[in-house]
Amino acid sequence: MTPRNTGRRTARAVDTRKAAGVIDLYERGHINLNDALARISGVDDPMVSAAPPIDKRRMHELLRELDDLVGLDEVKRVVREIFALVYVQQLRKEHRLKADPTVLHMIFYGNPGTGKTTVARILARMFHECGLLEKGHLVEVERADLVGEYIGHTAQKTREQIQKALGGVLFIDEAYSLARGGEKDFGREAIDCLVKAMEDHKHELIVILAGYEREMRWFLSTNPGLPSRFPIQIRFPDYSVDHLVQIAKKILAARDYRMTAEAEWALRSLLQRALREPRLEPFSNARFVRNLVEGAIRRQAVRLFEEARPKRDALMLIEARDWQGGEAR
């Protein structure tokens, strides 16, 4: 017998023993079928080899960016849970332990201006850093971007938006509007197309549906198959007056402005009145504050225009009278 033939027989014997060992691990439930087939074929699990190690330093940077957002304590807690799970699941894969795939499609409940889109952008980047999304970008759409005007148009428009979002997050604001038109409305076609894409591209796309809590819960009730497809549901509460004042300060500081003590009290009083007032639409939270700041900066500019040559400090200061005329929106 030649050395070459001996080597081949030895290799076959080793392969047979390896396959038997892998089958034994599979039958005892220590590895899943895909892992077993990958080991027998002599290649690593593609999901393990393709996923680079998570850069915890970069993850902590993004978590600090999340922490810098005003309020949202419960939101921050849930996001930390999600990424701790993703990190540990990757470590389990590296150690050939069972790591069930995690479904990361989400629903964000909340009124306008509560940080839903901002958090979605941070999540997209974090999923990219984890190796779960190739690009980590956010595509933000609403009903008009998905629903067409004639038969077949809706599927085309929805698929176009899905293609744009592949490798990132598709964020559908006011998603409940897709089900509002009744049985013959094209919005239901968009929902069906979306559900199919979530299955066809489950490793390339994360979908976040967002909207008012009551309307979103109604939307989920119209399609019994939807809630199980969105296992992560996060509520974004309205901001308190203290939080809204903090948001105003951050917006002003980012533009090299600051309030006098009197201006802060005036703003606080204005916000308290705005929150007490009856309104047809929900309070717009940070969006409302941003509009107030824009108005105050304009009124400050008009005030300084009448002065001969304003000093540097005057150019930075927002005074109490600059808030006058601010209206609830």
From TrEMBL:
Keywords: ATP-binding, Nucleotide-binding. It comes from the Bacteria. Residues 102-238 form the AAA+ ATPase domain. It holds the Pfam family AAA_lid_6. Belongs to the CbxX/CfxQ family. This is AAA family ATPase. The lineage of its organism: Bacteria, Bacillati, Bacillota, Bacilli, Bacillales.
